[in-house]
Fold each of these.
Amino acid sequence: MRLAVRELTCRRGARELFRGLAFTVEAGRALVVTGPNGAGKSSLLRLLAGLASPVAGSVRLEGAPEPDAYREQVHYLGHLDAHKLSLSAADNLAFWRDMLGGVDRGSALEVEEALDEVGLAGLGALPVAVLSAGQKRRLALARLLVAERPLWILDEPTTALDARAQALFASHARAHVEKGGLLVAATHAPLDLGPCESLEIGRHAARTASDAGGAPR
Ligand SMILES: Nc1ncnc2c1ncn2[C@@H]1O[C@H](COP(=O)(O)OP(=O)(O)OP(=O)(O)O)[C@@H](O)[C@H]1O
């Protein structure tokens, strides 16, 4: 399986952010997207997640078991955590498990296991409204664990996380890739994903590099 992006053009408002962008991400590989504020990283990720349509070009998951059900192959974590604040942490996660999970749960974790895994054990009954910013982000990351999906698209996944949670995230992300998953993450900070490709979105062009230094990993 591989993510194939061809001749992608993105426009927001009157501004063209990029044109003719092309790259692939193979199964078992990660791509880190970097670039200055406003360059178009989140816009690119929304295109990759199928949440927005490109002006031109295509995004395909080649070799996927169900190529027509692209959105069902994708875990997307945006800037916002997308929690229902009045519901408990456990109820939020149960919702996402049911929403995102398939019939075959594979090795996906149960809600309590996932809460434990992200360091929220004992907090499952609390309404999300009272969780700290980092706890809310940890809960968002727990969504990746309660449903198995091959393509993870993550927008600044470590925002608000302390060093321990960042390391925890990195170990789950590496494990996902090592077992053949695909991962695309936009970030301003190193993610410690191990060997990965990088894509720099600039003001005028996008530049790709494989396992090159110079960009956060
Ligand atoms: N709905 C919209 N209408 C018009 N312009 C938009 C819209 N959404 C985003 N933009 C503009 O598109 C550009 C790219 O935004 P985007 O969020 O993709 O950048 P980014 O690289 O993720 O930035 P950051 O590092 O700050 O998160 C910005 O100039 C932004 O103002």
Amino acid sequence: MSPAAAAARATSFAANFTTSTAPSSGGRLLRPFRGNPRPRRAVASMAVSAPKSPAAASFLERRESERALHFVKYQGLGNDFIMVDNRDSAVPKVTPEEAAKLCDRNFGIGADGVIFVMPGVNGADYTMRIFNSDGSEPEMCGNGVRCFARFIAEVENLQGTHSFKIHTGAGLIIPEIQDDGKVKVDMGEPILYGPDVPTKLPSTKNEAVVKAELAIDGLAWHVTCVSMGNPHCITFGSKELKVLHVDDLKLSDIGPKFEHHEMFPARTNTEFVEVLSRSHLKMRVWERGAGATLACGTGACAVVVAAVLEGRAERKCVVDLPGGPLEIEWREDNNHVYMTGPAEAVFYGSVVH
Ligand SMILES: N[C@@H](CCC[C@H](N)C(=O)O)C(=O)O
């Protein structure tokens, strides 16, 4: 597509979206919304209520248009995603440029990313792809994969506990919906070898980059680098600031300087962490491609790995994020990291493109 055509297409996105608020789930799986007389596809839950005015009638035409994209907005601890049912195709239904438009909180729907539920490959049940709010494509998303599991249960009309094998850019990820509606995810093994994270910082402990020095804004930050499929740089402070008070940080100033630092060839997510106890951590995150978000699942996992490597915490911790707590465990027996937390639908809508 030419840049001009892409721009025109993206503009029509912003001008033509409609939404409807989801009925409260009360912590349970949402049922299909009943106002839809004739759902276009099997995903009845993406429908909207019946029109009552001429304006609403023209909305109906748009909804039934071939170009309508139906979505469900999900959130996990305030990390929010536009979920797209892409089960019938291995090609995402929106382009990275369109995704960036849709994620815009003023001119679009507003979200930290767009997630596509796609057919599985290599024996996996499904494939997850995600575009960040800047249109870049990360390998993995922890809060996103919990939303992904709940969204699958919704569109497949599954009740109770279920687990799925999800193919992602970070390999096979296994979320399990628990009785209480929370999702526990086997996030696989952390990657600690510097060039694979990737970071150009030299290793300091075996092959890992632990408490290495990184100069930013006149401070010598102590950073540990961990990949959970996607890159993370974790800091508990600097030579000058021994202890961080994360609420005092101006993330929008400092975050981009980590994200775009030359030591991180694929850019990086950055977690700023305060140790409340050996099993209780508090963090704020600046995400690659999305900026300050209310939560980051892969980030919370990476934080616990870094805290263990630096001798600051036990392997099982509660991690407080601005959007709420996650339970994280880095198991010694299999080296896998497990993350448990909530995910829920927020609203349903459609957008014409
Ligand atoms: N919020 C996510 C991470 C999303 C991807 C990240 N921005 C990246 O580019 O790596 C999470 O919950 O893990």
